[in-house]
Here is the input.
Amino acid sequence: MATPSSNSKGTRAFSSHSHHHFVCTRIHKIAALALVVATFFLTRLFDQFLGPCSSPYRNSFSDVNRYNAPDDAVAFGGFGGYGTQLKLKIYVYDEDEIEGLKLLMYGRDGKISPEACVKGQWGTQVKIHKLLLQSTFRTRNKEEADLFFVPSYVKCVRMMGGLNDKEINQAYVKVLTQMPYFRLSGGRNHIFVFPSGAGAHLFKSWAIYLNRSIILTPEGDRTDKRDTSAFNTWKDIIIPGNVDDGMTIHRPRLVDPLPLLRRKYLATFLGRPQGKVGRLQLIDLAKQYPDKFESPELKFKGPDKLGRTEYFQHLRNAKFCLAPRGESSWTLRFYESFFVECVPVILSDQVELPFQNVIDYAQISIKWPSTQIGTQLLDYLESIPDKSIEEMIAKGRRVRCLWVYAPESESCSAFTGILWELQKKVRQFHQSAETFWLHNGSIINRDFVEFSKWRPPMPLP
Here is the structure.
């Protein structure tokens, strides 16, 4: 009885003041609406004013091409041992900190510059170093570091005559003897970048000294010219090649993709023969079917040299970009094809691809046996309907951000993918054949010298 009575009074009280309450509500609604509108336009204004300056990568892909949905394949966190968020602490050795390190970065005369080395397919050695120096995951405290990064531009240095093979080997050995933390872990928590098909073989003695270290390389197989491969899938990481910045960052890009119906060729192969059977077969196939398949002779010197823009113009003029094995199993052409929106066809049986835990490559590329290069390949490609090609291109468009070496502020980039992969390599405990420990947790060497008292140079195996 009491409840209805109180409700009745409450209703009457509301009614007796209904006019004033209504006026107040209208004012609040109008004010709230004005605030929402003002906020919207101010946000748009700030986005337009600040957006282009915030990052050169922001305009690399339109919003429809960015990978933000919950079911997107580039979401690393939450499964597969990656953890739910990045919590890395990486120490980056300073070039003045380690004796001999400058040799591996600038050559014997110190004249090779990072600007010269950042270009071309080996630029990842410079880009990863620079991105780590700017990273929020960088620590300047060795004691709290999960991993240690050793900067080296050795592939570029060698190609530009800055060091020969013997000098490279001597420089690496000298560098490693200056690193107590390398000795502490046997190199297990140290990261090295070898950005070419030769991989760690650039350091002739890699099998002795780096056989436990983390190697970042685009190459997963090198057994064609070596007795053994330097790549170990359990400790090393496959990284994307270095695609020209003119296609990944700058706007306007060097070239834009062509609509599928405007493309002249079914397939294209741009590359030198290098005396490789598969490549020679493709060149011969192009001569047999010039209306379907383009394989122009590449000129690297003289007036007929193919420029950067012309190179990508050739790639974009076909539905399929063929990527055969060359001196090694990987090819930069695989990554380049995504930026001209040409479906890559891998003709390299031993190839290893990056980020395979999160990318289903069967949805964005084709892998064809290198032993079956011939008319049957062209017949198969010709049988694929344009609708299917468009679907593969669309899916590739959404993951190609993983081939771009952009800062970690970008939600999708090669650098972020590498950080996630590195997180899986972090160990709670490190040991080596020359590391021992006692009941109180102190770490010693075989002469019972505590780790804090180790002094370079230290003996290596």
In short: The chain has two domains: 90-242+427-453, 257-404. The first strand starts at residue 90 and ends at 92.
